Amino acid sequence: MAIIDIKTEITGNVWKIVAEPGQSLDEDEPVLILESMKMEIPVAAPEAGRVVEILVEEGVTVSEGTVVARLEV
Questions:
Q1: C-alpha closest to that of 21 among 33, 31, 8
Q2: pLDDT band for position 1 (50/70/90)?
């Protein structure tokens, strides 16, 4: 098993975390939703796997490239 870091592609606020540690996700299934410029942008799993940890909390601001979660594939 490998661990993959899930990173943001934009700067924004963590609006809602939709996955939790231990949860299995399919490829492209959202882990969390960012809010940027009044738009909701999902941050999705790049591969199918199990969420190991969520590294951010709702309401925090993240920059482009921030690791927000780890996925075991």
A1: 31
A2: confident
